[in-house]
Automatic annotation (TrEMBL):
<dbReference type="InterPro" id="IPR023395">
    <property type="entry name" value="MCP_dom_sf"/>
</dbReference>
<dbReference type="GO" id="GO:0031966">
    <property type="term" value="C:mitochondrial membrane"/>
</dbReference>
<keyword id="KW-0410">Iron transport</keyword>
<keyword id="KW-1133">Transmembrane helix</keyword>
<keyword id="KW-0813">Transport</keyword>
<comment type="similarity">
    <text>Belongs to the mitochondrial carrier (TC 2.A.29) family.</text>
</comment>
<dbReference type="GO" id="GO:0048250">
    <property type="term" value="P:iron import into the mitochondrion"/>
</dbReference>
<keyword id="KW-0472">Membrane</keyword>
<protein>
    <recommendedName>
        <fullName>Mitoferrin-1</fullName>
    </recommendedName>
</protein>
<dbReference type="GO" id="GO:0015093">
    <property type="term" value="F:ferrous iron transmembrane transporter activity"/>
</dbReference>
<feature type="repeat" description="Solcar">
    <location>
        <begin position="1"/>
        <end position="66"/>
    </location>
</feature>
<keyword id="KW-0812">Transmembrane</keyword>
<keyword id="KW-0408">Iron</keyword>
<keyword id="KW-0406">Ion transport</keyword>
<comment type="function">
    <text>Mitochondrial iron transporter that specifically mediates iron uptake in developing erythroid cells, thereby playing an essential role in heme biosynthesis.</text>
</comment>
<keyword id="KW-0496">Mitochondrion</keyword>
<dbReference type="InterPro" id="IPR018108">
    <property type="entry name" value="MCP_transmembrane"/>
</dbReference>
């Protein structure tokens, strides 16, 4: 469900994007490239989300053990652990994000530089093209921006989750009647 929205967002964000609105972008992509254009990066998206979430949760749990070993409600520890977990997960999965973005945008300059006519498809082809055009550093383009985006996002998510867990647990305990 989210993959088509990501395609539209990234195409609107491209420098000198020909698309002036999300609906026009959807219509143009549908008409010129077909339904497959909205799912060209689907495998890459899934391949990125699994390690991202794994690293994210494992790191959060590890950091909570270090800074909040009693696992009490502690907003500061949840924010710090959540932000750092998101930063590490974002950094580790940036190469997959770079490839996903290339598949979603079909950026003309990159395709021309790689002598590709038509459309780029498949995660393996995207990995080869990124390496061909930029070498190893190409896989980490935008990493700082990705980390800056993910840190507050994951910090907020964890702090809200932990707040509601605390609030609902506390409310449930207070509403119990003694036997």
């Amino acid at each position: 469900v989210m993959n088509p929205a990501e395609v539209v967002k990234q195409r609107l964000q491209m420098y000198d994007s020909p698309h002036r609105s999300a609906l026009r972008c959807v219509w143009t992509v549908w008409r010129t490239e077909g339904l497959g254009a909205f799912y060209r990066s689907y495998t890459t998206q899934l391949t990125m989300n699994i390690p991202f979430q794994s690293i994210h949760f494992i790191t959060y749990e590890f950091l909570q053990e270090q800074v909040n070993p009693h696992r009490g409600y502690n907003p500061q520890s949840h924010i710090i652990s959540g932000g750092l977990a998101g930063a590490l997960a974002a950094a580790a999965t940036t190469p997959l994000d770079v490839c996903k973005t290339l598949l979603n945008t079909q950026e003309n300059m990159a395709l021309n530089l790689a002598n590709i006519s038509g459309r780029l498809s498949g995660m393996a082809n995207a990995f080869r093209m990124v390496y061909q055009l930029n070498g190893l550093p190409g896989y980490f383009k935008g990493m700082q921006a990705r980390i800056i985006y993910q840190m507050p996002s994951t910090a907020i998510s964890w702090s809200v989750y932990e707040f509601f867990k605390y609030f609902l647990t506390k409310h449930k305990l207070e509403s119990r009647t003694p036997y």
